[in-house]
Amino acid sequence: MSALTLEEEIAEAIRKDGGLVSLSQLPVREGWLRKRLGDKKLLNVLKGREDLFEIIGSGASMAVKVQNQALSTHSSIDIHNADQAASELLDWVQHLLDMKQQAIKLPHIVADKRIKKRLHQFTRAVGCDHPAFSTQWWDDACEKLIELVKASGERFLLQQETPDDIRSVTIDLREGCRSSHKTDADFVSSMNTSTFINRLSYQLRQSGRVARRNEKQHFSLQLSKLGSDDQIQRILKGRSLSSIIQILSDNGTLTASGISIESAVTKKGNLTLLSLQCAEVKKASEDIDQVSIVSDVLFESLPLFIVVHKPTGVTTEQVADFYWNSGKYRDSKSTGVDTVSRLDRGTSGALALPLSTDGEKLLGDHFRESRINKTYICLVSGETPESGSIELKLHLVDNGSTYKSYVSPHGKDSLTTYRRLEVLRRQGAVYSLVEVHPKTGRTHQIRAHMSSVGHPLVRDGKYGGEKRSKRHSKWCGRLFLHAASIEIPSYEPVEAPLADDLQKVINYLKEETPSIEDKTVSGKR
């Protein structure tokens, strides 16, 4: 194949990122591009190949998309990524067959959400001309999976009852490739039991119904709801939760951890519950100053909800537990109530907490319909435009231990508007203090969007790079992101004053930032 031109190499790089990339982030992600461009302007290069690229948006939110018809112009297969994706896909197929201990038809295999996810990754790696999960995509993806299975004949047996009908394909494992864990009991003997029990206990405390028995807290939750937890699924590797729970109950592991199995009779029939009885749960009061509980409540609408000033360094769940389980709100809080929105551990500011099922429904409905207006204050690298909007789809990737949002055409619609408040300078570096309004509520939306337009938040190692974050750590102790206000329909806006540590950062930068008068005087000279 002939050597690719600069424009075609850029197209290949964008395809690897999902086909849509922020224009300002492209040279950052692809270091080689800065050298290849030389004195050329990236935008002019892209505009010169309208057959390859589509420019979306304008100003700071400008993005570039690879044209669909250009996808097959050259081989877009990333050999390394394709091989890795194919390996993971086949491993999960083998795992499913091993767990079921029988042959499975192809439609049932690709219906497994873990296999479907990896099948999507594989088709992206090798290039697919059809929209993901469309009818044409499914046909193409299933044919590619069959080819992989045929090429791995040492592991799999493939049979097709009806020619030219992929739905009749049946896949099984060869006998020598089956795992030694043929039973759930064998699996339990080799699994990390402590990690599994800790996750069960955490989920029971967070989502279970709370009651008090013999001066102890009692949590109960349906087994089916526990089975939907992603981390529990990863630990079990697709095995039946009820079967594993029963084995752990029979051998005394659950009892030793204070967890028991109960039954409940409802209108829908018998339900299996897991229960946890223990002493008072560790509250977030170890992390939050109890003396400040009254002053940190910014607004009350009893018995529906309260708005509190969340400090940095603690999770939303810890803050909720603190207010729900102590002080005057303990008696106001209904059982089974859960949080409806959250702030990251490093983010401070206004946080709405429901106290009753009515309050949870009220806030939940408002958040789902995007009727709640939230304002954030953040400090970002570089000088932003005076105002702007960022409308780029975000796709959340969860790898089990952490998660991150990426700009991707396969993501969810996301919109952020912002207004620059002030430009600050220190030791030759430029920063912008920005007021941000997320119009949608995607995970890490502000952080991902601001980074995508070339203005990552100060101390944001995940989206701005660890090296940059380390430089900022000398004068900023944490992520500079503060929920300044929240406006709930039918209520007055509730404001949370900027945290003291963030105000000190602003004062530090202002020490070297020249004032307007200084600039005027120096200009006259």
What does this structure look like?
This protein is an alpha+beta fold and 525 residues long. Helices cover 37% and strands 24% of the residues. It contains 21 helices and 21 strands. Strands 11, 12, 13, 14, 15, 18, 19, 20 and 21 form a nine-stranded mixed β-sheet that branches. α5 (79-100) runs antiparallel to α7. The longest helix has 22 residues, at 79-100. The radius of gyration is 27 Å and the shape is flat. It starts with 5 loop residues before the first helix and ends with a helix.
- Contiguous runs where pLDDT drops below 50 for at least 5 residues: 69-80, 279-295, 516-525
| Extended strand count | 21
- SS-derived structural category: alpha+beta
Average predicted local confidence, pLDDT? 77
**Taking Cα atoms only, what radius of gyration do you get, to the nearest Å?**
27 Å
Q: If helices are DSSP runs of H or I spanning 4 or more residues, what is the number of helices? A: 21
Question: Which geometry do the CA atoms define?
Answer: flat
Summarize the model shown:
The protein is built from 21 helices and 21 strands. With 525 residues, the chain is α+β, with helices and mostly antiparallel strands. Strands 11, 12, 13, 14, 15, 18, 19, 20 and 21 form a 9-stranded mixed beta sheet that branches. A 4-stranded antiparallel beta sheet has the order 7-8-10-9. It has a 3-stranded antiparallel beta sheet with strand order 1-3-2.
